[in-house]
Design a protein that fits this description.
This protein has seven helices and six strands, in the order ααααβαβαββββα. The chain is α+β, with helices and mostly antiparallel strands. Strands 1, 2, 3, 4, 5 and 6 form a six-stranded antiparallel beta sheet that branches.
C-alpha cells in the first residue's frame, strides 16, 4: 500500500494550494501596474494626437504612467527580495512580466527626460540670431518669448527675452549657423521643396523667386506641429546663396532638441556638406 507521503509532490503553479496562490497577490499587482502604465502612457499620447484632449493633459498622463511604472518596478523588486527568504516562494512569472513591461515604458520616457536635461529649454531655433527668418503665411505663436530661460539669472539681468533667447541659443546650439550654397536662389528653394516633400512636411508656401519656403512637420504620437521657414538670399559676393532656416514648436516650452535636430538634418541634406557662411 502506497502512502500519500510517498507520492511525488506537484509544485507547478497550476496545482498550488489556495493558501499558496493567495501569496501571489504581488504578482498580479505588479502585472496590472506594469501593463497599466504602458497602456495609460500610450493612450495619453495617441489621444492627444487625435485631439481628444489638450496636450497638457496628455503630458500629465504620460508622466502619471511613468510614475506608475516606477512603482510597479519597485514593488516587484521588493517582493523578489522577500521571496528569497521564503520557504515556498510564490510564482514569479506574472511579477517579472509586469516589471519588464514597466521597465520598457519607463526607459522610453526616461530617454526624453534625460534629453530635457541636456538641451536648452527653448522651442525656437534659428541659424541667424540677429535677424531670424520671419513667417509670412504661418503664424508665429503669440507666447514665443514667454518663459525664456534666464529671467532669474544674475548674469542676464537687464536682458530682454529676445536677448536671453539669443544667449541660451548660442550656448546650446552654437554650431547652427547660416550656410552657403554655390547655387542660385531659385534652385536652392526648388531643392528645399523636394526635400520637404520627401519628409512629408505640409508646405504652406514655396516661392523660388523670393527665396522663401514655409512648411509644417507633425510628430508621430502627440501630433505636435513645428513650423519651419527657409530664407535664401544672394551671397554678398555674388557667388551662390546664403541659406537661413528657422524651426519653431507651436506648443510647449522645451522642444527636447527636436528643432535643432531638424535644422541640422535638413541643412545637411540641402548642402551636402554644411559650411558656415562668412
Amino acid at each position: 500500500m502506497v502512502n500519500d507521503q510517498d507520492m511525488p509532490q506537484d509544485t507547478s503553479e497550476a496545482t498550488l494550494s489556495p493558501a499558496r496562490a493567495k501569496k501571489d497577490y504581488a504578482g498580479y499587482l505588479v502585472l496590472i501596474a506594469g501593463v497599466g502604465a504602458l497602456v495609460w502612457g500610450m493612450v495619453s499620447a495617441v489621444g492627444t494626437g487625435w485631439g481628444f484632449w489638450a496636450y497638457t493633459a496628455g503630458l500629465k498622463g504620460v508622466t502619471g504612467a511613468f510614475l506608475l511604472g516606477i512603482v510597479a518596478i519597485l514593488i516587484g523588486l521588493f517582493h523578489a527580495w522577500r521571496a528569497r527568504k521564503s520557504i515556498a516562494p510564490p510564482p514569479r512569472m506574472r511579477r517579472w512580466i509586469g516589471m519588464l513591461v514597466a521597465l520598457i515604458y519607463v526607459g522610453w520616457v526616461g530617454t526624453f527626460l534625460v534629453k530635457a536635461l541636456t538641451v536648452p529649454a527653448i522651442h525656437d531655433v534659428s541659424t541667424d540670431l540677429a535677424d531670424p527668418p520671419t513667417f509670412q503665411i504661418l503664424q508665429l505663436r503669440a507666447d514665443n518669448l514667454d518663459n525664456v530661460p534666464g529671467a532669474d539669472d544674475l548674469k542676464m539681468r537687464g536682458l530682454t527675452p529676445q536677448q536671453r533667447w539669443g544667449v541660451v541659443h548660442q550656448k546650446g546650439y552654437g554650431d547652427i549657423r547660416s550656410v552657403r550654397i554655390n547655387e542660385p536662389v531659385p534652385m536652392v528653394i526648388a531643392k528645399a521643396e523636394r526635400l520637404a516633400k520627401a519628409r512629408n512636411w505640409d508646405i504652406a508656401i514655396s516661392v523660388p523667386e523670393e527665396g522663401r519656403l514655409e512648411a509644417t512637420e507633425t510628430s508621430a504620437f502627440f501630433q505636435f506641429k513645428d513650423d519651419v521657414v527657409l530664407r535664401v538670399r544672394p551671397s554678398d559676393t555674388g557667388a551662390g546663396s546664403v541659406v537661413d532656416m528657422r524651426s519653431v514648436s507651436r506648443v510647449g516650452v522645451s522642444d527636447l532638441g527636436m528643432n535643432a535636430k531638424r535644422v541640422r538634418s535638413f541643412l545637411a541634406d540641402l548642402t551636402g556638406t554644411v559650411t558656415a557662411a562668412r
